[in-house]
Amino acid sequence: MSESTSAAPPSDGTAPAPRLARGSLSVTDAIAISVSLLAPGLAMFLNVAGVSVVAGASTPLAFLLGGVACLALAFVVVGFTRRMASAGYAYSYASRSLGKRAGFLAGWLYAFGFVCFTPMLMAGVAYLLVDLLQVGAGWWFPFFLTGMVLLVALSVVRVKVTTQAQIAVAVATVALILVVDVVVTVKGGTAGHTVQPFTFDHTLKGGFSGVFYGIILGITSYIGFETAADFGEETANPRKAVPVAIITTVVFAIVLYVWTTYALDIGVGTHDNGAAFAAEPSALKAVATRYVGGWLGNLLELGALLSAFFACVGCVIAVSRTLFSMGREGVLPSWLGRTHPRFRTPANATVAVAALATVLAVIVGFGMAQKAFGGAAFTVFYFFATLGTLAVILVYIGLCFGGAVFFKRTHERYNALAHLVVPVAGAALFAAALYGSVYPVPAFPLNYTPYLTLLWLVLGVAVIAALKARNPAAIERIGSILGEEGGGTAADELDAVADAQTAAATKE
Fold first, then answer.
1. What is the DSSP letter of 339?
2. DSSP secondary structure, 342-388, as one string
3. What is the pTM of this model?
4. What pLDDT does residue 297 have?
């Protein structure tokens, strides 16, 4: 095993590259950040409506397939994290497996996706706050701006400061959701239990394509499970803590999402292929009110609001580290690779993301708002949810193939089923979601999202071509700065030593 305690020096060789705060996060912190970015309260409160409008009564199947794809990706990411730790995991892992240019494009798309999720999540906060306070819909933007100011403050302060609040919100919201799940499951919903929600025959649009399109927002609900990998440099014992956080988060999400969407499905009723289910702006609130009481529906809405806000904080924290990593290596402006002198967080990247997110929200919220989507805030929410997810799905597909290549090259105990079939199966499911985003053609303005994603990808190719011509040394630095690195048996030996030390400490 080799360790690098400092980054590769800049081109002038005069100073070491900036560092994030090493070992400042525990495994609990890593799980909290990942779960908070999942925002289970928001996912079940708002995302379900976007899936059910096409997947209908088969909505649980869309969430199940999205979860299986993410579980396959989790295996790939864990394989990487056991050998290297880095800020901006997608960027670093893709560069080490598929090459430096692919690494740049992965970071380029991943950062774009999470930049999109920032206005999406804050628009969700604004929408829910307007609904809770029963004020005019026009208040969504003042609430959006206020949230952004608070977000920047919390993101620049050391990450650990926000984790306790994240844990509290996540635990409370999940507990409330589980109350609904248990009550509806015990009562059997409107007409008893059924396997219809897990078939392709009960969609509202297009059978297979209805489920595949539904997978997009289904995957949106899972995005963030792997966020702990972005904190490899800041997490204590990252090769053990990060894999635990990733697997724990994705398994938790699959169980919660599939059970909850099933409970909501039968709670509203699967008749007419789930038309009544799709008609509910928030089936979670409606079912909670019907089966338990209005007080629970209101508490769930408050929990969704807080979940969305902390998810937005986690989102900015995650993407700022990708930008920080790329700026530190010189493939993006170097000022993005600078940290706050006191908190040692990527403050410049954080402010840049927040500012860009606000501009994007203005463009869509005031220029493309659709009443069919529920107004300006909801249009911002669904537009950027779709756009960001398409970009991240491309990264996920690349990482799945990259994992297959990386395992073949580095794993001494190579297993075709685990190291080839699993990653390829995950890539296939993500590709199905991409297909569903193009056919059938979605409504305006969502119909623009595949083309905007493609445009961003092409722009990234142009940027890396320009870098090659003007600054070839920057390309050579892509993926070169890691918090810890070890390959092959080195990682296994490190884990064996750690396990032996833990056992000895226990005996004592």
1. -
2. TT-S-HHHHHHHHHHHHHHHHHHHHHS-BGGGTBHHHHHHHHHHHHH
3. 0.79
4. 92
